[in-house]
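Take one protein record:
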Amino acid sequence: MSDLFSGRLALLAEPSNLSLLGQCLHGIERECLRVDARGELALTPHPRALGSALTHTRITTDYSESLLEFITPTAEDPQATLDELDAVHRFTYSRLDGEYLWSHSMPCPLPDEARIPIAEYGSSNVGRLKHVYRRGLAVRYGKTMQCIAGIHYNFSLPERLWAVLQVAEGDTRPRRDYQSERYIALIRNFRRYSWLLMYLFGASPALDADFLRGRAHGLEQLDADTLYLPWATSLRMSDLGYQNNAQSGLTPCYDALHSYTESLRLAVSTPYPPYAALGTHDASGQWQQLNTNVLQIENEYYSSIRPKRVTYSGERPIQALMARGVQYVEVRCLDIDPFLPLGVDIDEARFLDAFLLYCALQESPCLADGECSASGSNFLRVVKEGRRPGLQLQRRGQAVGLQDWARELLEQIGQAAALFDAGQGGEDHARAVRVQRAKVEDSSLTPSARVLACLREGRESFRDFSLRQSRAHAEYFRAEPLPAALAQAFDDDARRSLEEQAALERDESGDFDSFVAAYQASLVGISV
């Protein structure tokens, strides 16, 4: 344990500061496919009873019309966040007609690419922009890859906590700059250590055999309909035979916020020849991508974690970060746990809090001398073979056993967990760390190992297992419907969102081509 980490822990453990960790904010976004009774992709439109995917604050769609996304408001207590997520699930199930929410991150058996429906958001300019962006994803990467689902965990430390640390360290910069730098330092440590999350929470060691669409791969055949890797933790986070050449040069190692935002600004402004050859419009004159640049928009950049700032109306994510700094981080590498109705539980949430606090307080030098590449290699090695006995990773140029390194990290993460418990009472966070320690000592306890055990022992295909879990989760949610008043509140939200979309479309001014041009021009000339 570094002296810096110990000193920061001690400072936050002082009675005047101990309550600060109770003011962390949490939010969860959960993606899930709608499927029919046979476990095949639901080709029905986004249910109108759920409201407008464009304007509803809690229920929307991600890439496909069939890919739901549930978004919780922020809360200081992660259990309150999970309760919000639970309520959204129960309402959704009460309005689904003979359909299920797929229990796994890897998709159900998918139809031909042409039949996978891209999400629709209506006729307003902003709705059309969201749709065309998704058409661009289809052109660039294919629809199949966009049907993978996950859990996004949003987390922030209170600004007062950053202020305490800044004063103690004698840092005289504007508070915004200090806070942003410290979030970027957190992200650097996340890149160093996020392989641990893949080992502990990865839950996608297998997938439907048709998912790869004939692409070359190194997977093994478990049965006629299932591909897998015997020691994999999260095939969702592997390359799966898929290479994104346009983004290959986009690997910012987060030396500073300005270098991160500048790399994204250049990516959304720089043409990429293969995309330029395709053009923005197809042969019939319809928009098929927003532009021909490396990225159409900032969110196209695939990353396991992002620095974030709540945006104002009409403001782009880069602009918000540049203007007001980092406000929170979004963890994007978490699989849906198919054994859990919500795909995530309170032990995972509390462990993530302790893990992210550790990343925030631990010393975090810039990634140099190959460490950035080594971190990426460690991550990929764990997602493909993280449970292999004796697996070795690279740390500061030296080989280290995964188990040994994991034990060391959990010891220090346990110190961060103890700080949460000291401020909030009880030992909930310590318990969450103990649950993870058990997985390190016995890999059969990990979600990925449990999935493979179910497939093998039950002689089930990936499809059959996932559908069985989806049906069990549906029964769980339907067995206890929402109270009438809460269900009515959800119905009211759905109705208001439809009215808001209708108003946007009714009051629209200007044509779509001009709207896209103005959107593109919003970053021209901006630098950091």
